[in-house]
Amino acid sequence: MFESLRKRALEIPVLRRPWARYRAGQALRRYQAWARKYGRIADERRLVYTKETAARDIRNHMRHKSIVPKRTGQLNSVIFIIKADWGAGVVNELAKLGDVNVFDYKERGFTMPYRKLQGHLQELNRQMLDFVMKAHERKPVDWILFTHTGGYIFVDTIRRIREQLGIPIVNQWFDCKQNFEGGAGVNGQDIGQSDIAPEFDAVWTSSRSVCEWYMAIGARPIFLPPGFSPAYTPRADCEKKSDIGFFGQCYGTRPDYITTLKRAGLSVSVGGYGWRDFPAIAPCDISKFIASCKVNLGISGVGYSMDLVTLKGRDFEVPGSGGVYLATYNPDLEPLFDIGKEIFCYRSMAEMIDLARMLVYDEALRESAAENGYRRAIKEHRWLHRFKELLKILGLIKEDE
Fold it and tell me: Which of 342, 352, 299, 300 is nearest to 322 (CA)?
């Protein structure tokens, strides 16, 4: 009852906006505190992240493991993920490298609210450990990919897998900027990344700015963006029904971006959890939604904060499915696409409106950008590309693959 009333109240702009500003301020202050704390340690130890030193540190850490690189199609992987959303695309791409054993939390009933889940964490960890051991008994597992915070997996579980199997274990986490630390949970373990990260052989982060933080706590980060799967978001050909489209959850200041575009005279379609009067988009319909909009919007804030930005899955799903993409400017995105040719970026709402209008009214520019962005994404930004880069660093696949 209370949660329902709260959601209704936050649909009212005069109530939602102060709440969003408060939450945004919280997120920014938290990030800044971590940046000072871990940045000081990194400076004292002269820790500077580069991909070359990261690869060296990871390989040095794993020097006692007996790893023989394999050819594409020969790997046996274990992944812990929810397939119902973008995880389906991740699994599909990973399967191109060999067999995949998938532990799906949703299928096993572990997607309840966190307060309730805490009473089931012992059972969750027991099942995860049992799953890995049985998969290894059927066929030797080459590596394991978790997608976790310390609120789900125990340090002891990671250690037991490492000690019993001696194979590379990686954690993929893309929300580092908002939950690097999370406070004490079950067994006093931090529910963010700070306690579990050093236990993995490598930590896959999509935020370059937190790499030194991981190094400061003794973890081995590798900065790799998210990717996309052509099977999950295939290129589609649909009639253009809207000028602008946005798919993603409704919270914070996101409704203000949509309202601003509408007031500028542009037709806007949205889809995702929380948008009133708009249905959620089924995973199988995301490509159709992208194709039905002349321009697809990216809002790249971290949680409620737009002062912080991070790479998003749609940064690659939109161009990867042939859509025209207009995203928040993010320095981590700039090296990945030719901005102004393959995708477009805005730094303010005023610039967002100007670029949106330009793209909506210039069909030739849209067609050129869509084709350029698609070619770049297909060539460089699939999940398969990310896996190959990571697995070469781990020494699991041959360098010429």
Answer: 342
